[in-house]
Design brief:
The structure is a homodimer.
Chain A (H helix, E strand, L loop, with lengths): L2 E6 L4 E6 L2 H4 L3 H12 L12 E6 L13 E6 L6 E6 L3 H7 L2 E7 L7 E7 L2 E7 L7 H12 L4 E4 L2 H4 L7 E4 L5 E4 L4 H7 L2 E6 L12 H17 L1 H10 L4 H8 L15 H4 L1 H10 L3 E4 L10 E5 L5 E4 L3 H7 L8 H14 L3 H13 L8 H12 L4 H6 L3 H8 L6 E2 L2 E2 L9 H9 L12 H4 L15 H15 L9 H6 L3 H13 L5 H22 L11 H4 L13 H5 L5
Parallel strand pairs in A: 1-6, 7-12
Antiparallel strand pairs in A: 1-2, 3-4, 3-6, 4-5, 7-8, 9-10, 9-12, 10-11, 13-14, 14-15, 16-17
Helix pairs in contact in A: 2-23, 7-22, 12-14, 13-15, 14-17, 18-20, 20-23
């Protein structure tokens, strides 16, 4: 029997509950958003006792399907003030699924000042007092837990930034190589910190494992699905070879690479930080150009990046981080960015929010443009130690802007805008505006169609078709985020006719269900509407579905493009 | 002819405009809110080029009427994100009125990094580049301008905090003794700083002066009005004798004196900081227990507070400041609070927002409870110098809470809750929730009726009658804020039958009009609805008309009272 684990920190009790029938067919984002919408008062303080932190594996997590090992986390976000779902690779989703944990709900807040950890195993979940690992970075915690509990232990952990409850704090999950992947966005680590849970360990010894209703059908569909992933040029070649950082040169070419805190659309240092350079550097230094963030990944867009002495420096080194500190902060030294990436991983802080916050800080004159060494120093000595400056930067781009009177602050719903300029890639601007998550490229990745010509072509510089494109992708993504699938399956799903039916076949084979494509679309719509209803009840309005003013008034080179959607056009997104 | 002065900083031009007919009958808050609502896009960045800063004297400013010399300032607030009006004594309102300046509108934003000042005289307004007085505190700027332009010059000025565009920055106005009074709340000083105007000087030499349509009728009404002010025990005795600080002991007795960041309702150090102790200290040290903030004030609730050596320390030393650093921060030394008050005046920072921010900072462990010396040090060395810590505290209570993960943060619409606990004085809680200004006691001062039994009696601990009380007072206050009158005229207006008709008679005699009491009520309603419409368009909702959660969950001693209004009850405020 699947189960819900519920941890109540008000009285330090735990319960194993049956899965209510209305939650039984939901996983991942569909489940976390449904639970948050049902159980969290929308106007509560995100760091107070009435918020809840919910983890849920996807519908296909734990199966042998490729790329299905993602875990969703959900809560009211301390960054946006709205609902938040963020999903991650690593080993936890598959362990949850094998333990038949449908969701873990953490609620309440401990009395006193003590900290705790949770231990999950086949019996359920228990609460321990925690003192020894407090204040440590993510890597030290994982090392300690692997020594204590064995190499196979699953770990969900917050770093010092989560302990400080800063709005950029993320939650990290151990990956198969003992490194981490993170629920990056929206400050979910601060919510975990507010509940004073330093880490969750997972032991799946004796787990009952996954039941597949129709194993043969599942296998057949899985083969078709995996072949589609391997056949598509983006998921089969581009991402495996260069990682997500393949995008630096592509966005530079398109004039959509936000540069110097979103002042320009091209970066003259693009060659030094691009995926091609990174690939060659990794190979020359004996690193690994390919690495999967979870078992069963066939794309393997992660990597191991070594320093110039051939020593491990970082992994999970993503385009958005490299763009954010590179083009957006004018840092041309990839090694400095890698160093910063490693420190951010260890501190447990969202590298997108933080990189954009550094761009605003540079605009405010807090540090020189392009000074990667100073970025690393501020990360370690200011954010890591919780100085006032560190806390401001660690509270995100919006906080830096408010504290230093900067008006060029690229945020929507107070969440930093990622690596694609919405003036020159207009579809992604619609996603930034309308996603209930705040500015988030993954919520409806129009770059696929605007720039990569996946799923057709929609001119990035024109308004035509962008609302529909973003809407369709956001609906599809909400559904995909519920399956445990990596977002990159969208590339073959958009281009290869067999891919999406195979995904639906896998879900049907897993549960003995008979979902159609329409059912999946309806699921996506329901998720978006549930999330938006939470946000409206929390006090967000259409006025929060807007880009900052400067995108309208300041044209961006080289296209001299401005953001020219009217409010009415943006609001038409919700007509479905 | 009355005129509008308009300053456009985009191109450094100024214009003298006729007063549009729809603005002719408006003054003070009615006029600033009408202009802001008409000309400022509600979703603009408050510190960007699309916000406007508007000054307007009241309808009776410049006349011989008692207590009519208040100046309104309005803009979109960087603190609340909504519309803001804040009014002030000092000499500027009467100079504006004598110069027949109906309003001054400052719009746009200068190119480059230069700073400017404005010079107003009978010809209009001109723009000067400013370098010499940048970075100086308010007192030094006023001294310098008096040397340069003569003792009689009017001055409107921002201190270093306004230059830094921090959300607690105020705008100060020279008073008759060369000291200052401030447009305190909502960060209007940051708006002036964003426009890079350090000060405005006013020369009323050759001013045409006020025209009174019916001088005899005006004089007769003015006599009745002044007598009412003098006859009422609060405006005629309590305030003149003890200043606003008469309230410390009264609120302590009522259990409504927020103590230790709104943890308790009584302060064991109340005797050391109360109005009675302050009065005796002032007298013993050769200070002045009475002092008017503008010519024509018959209440004179201000004072001159000397240090123990008999040297001038501060004036305009208000209950809210003394409560905020005293009871709310547990500081028992009145001299420390006076020192802090003087530094805040010089820096140009709202003493309510800042005192409450210190309470949250103490809760976060940033400085010890009750440490007045450290408060003064932080004001001078951190806020005054713009360190990161200083900027966080100078950005207000909400910013401190967000940056340090504190959940007991007494704000509404991100503006700090003043000196009356809404759990034990429930009427004021309705005002805090619903005022378009954010938490603001002056917007509808139910303390009059809840605590002082002025205008009847409404039990502060019960819900009955509070919505109606707050609504009636907010409507009346919006109208009074449009006349140039001090809010303290509300005491006789509520209790002495002749007072309000005399006020209306003065307005009619001044303008040759025939307004009735209903017209005044309708004006108040229109102002509130105009302001609320701006806020809704800016993205605020009913969810912003709420007190923080902890007022519901944490009972406050000695009455163990909680905030128990439902959302529906609060929202019924707007049914008019």
């Amino acid at each position: 029997m699947d189960k819900i684990l519920r941890v109540n920190l008000n009285d330090l009790t735990t319960r194993v509950e049956e899965v209510p029938s209305e939650w039984a067919g939901l996983g991942g984002r569909a489940l976390t958003s449904t639970i948050v919408a049902k159980e969290v008062p929308p106007t509560c303080h995100a760091l107070g006792p009435n918020n809840k932190l919910v983890f849920a594996p996807g519908l296909l997590s734990g199966t042998a399907s490729s790329n299905s090992g993602r875990l969703s986390a959900g809560a009211k976000s301390p960054l946006t003030g709205g609902i938040k779902e963020s999903n991650v690779g690593g080993t936890a989703a598959q362990m949850f699924a094998r333990l038949r944990i449908h969701a873990l709900i953490i609620e309440g807040m401990p009395k006193g000042d003590g900290w705790y950890s949770l231990r999950i195993n086949k019996e359920g979940v228990s609460i321990q007092e925690e003192t020894g690992l407090l204040g440590l970075g993510n890597f030290a915690v994982i090392d300690a837990l692997q020594s204590l509990l064995g190499k196979k232990t699953g770990v969900i952990v917050i770093g010092p930034v989560g302990e400080m409850r800063l709005s950029s704090a993320n939650i990290s999950v151990k990956d198969p190589s003992g490194k981490i992947r993170s629920h990056g966005r929206g400050g979910l680590g601060a919510v975990m910190g507010s509940k004073r849970i330093k880490f969750i360990s997972i032991d799946d010894e004796g787990a009952p494992g996954i039941q597949i209703a129709d194993p043969e059908k599942f296998k057949a569909a899985s083969r078709v699905f995996t072949k589609a992933l391997m056949d598509h040029p983006v998921s089969g070649q581009g991402l495996p070879t260069y990682g997500t950082n393949v995008l630096v040169n592509i966005l530079h070419e398109a004039g959509g690479l936000p540069t110097r805190n979103f002042t320009y659309g091209q970066f003259d240092g693009h060659e030094q930080i691009c995926g091609e350079t990174m690939h060659d550097t990794i190979v020359a230094r004996g690193g690994k150009p390919r690495h999967g963030c979870h078992a069963g990944c066939v794309i393997q867009c992660s990597q191991v990046y070594n320093d110039k002495d051939g020593q491990y420096l970082t992994s999970g080194f993503e385009y958005e981080t490299i763009w954010g500190l590179g083009a957006n902060c004018l840092i041309k030294e990839l090694d400095d960015i890698a160093q910063a990436d490693s420190v951010m991983d260890d501190l447990g802080i969202d590298s997108i929010e933080t990189a954009v916050a550094f761009g605003v800080a540079m605009e405010a004159g807090l540090l020189p443009w392009g000074d990667g060494k100073e970025v690393v120093r501020i990360l370690r000595d200011e954010i890591g130690k919780g100085t006032a400056l560190g806390r401001v930067i660690g509270s995100g781009a919006g906080a830096v802007g408010r504290t230093y009177g900067v008006t060029r602050v690229p945020v929507v719903k107070n969440q930093a805008i990622p690596a694609y300029d919405p003036r020159s890639v207009k579809g992604i601007g619609i996603t930034y505006c309308t996603s209930p998550m705040g500015a988030d490229h993954t919520a409806g990745y129009t770059i696929a169609t605007n720039i990569l010509n996946v799923g057709g072509q929609v001119d990035p510089l024109k308004k035509d078709g962008q609302i529909e494109l973003s809407r369709n992708l956001q609906i599809a993504t909400a559904a995909i985020d519920s399956t445990g699938m990596c977002i990159f399956i969208a590339f073959p799903a958009l281009d290869i006719p067999e891919c999406l039916p195979a995904l639906i076949d896998m879900i049907n084979a897993r549960f003995g269900a008979s979902l159609t494509g329409d059912d999946v679309v309806n699921l996506g719509k329901t998720i978006l509407k549930t999330e938006r209803a939470f946000n409206l009840a929390a006090g967000l309005t259409a006025a929060d579905d807007r880009l900052p003013e400067f995108f309208k008034s300041d044209p961006v080179a080289p296209h001299q493009a401005v953001w020219d959607f009217t409010n009415e056009e943006i609001d038409a997104f919700w007509d479905f």
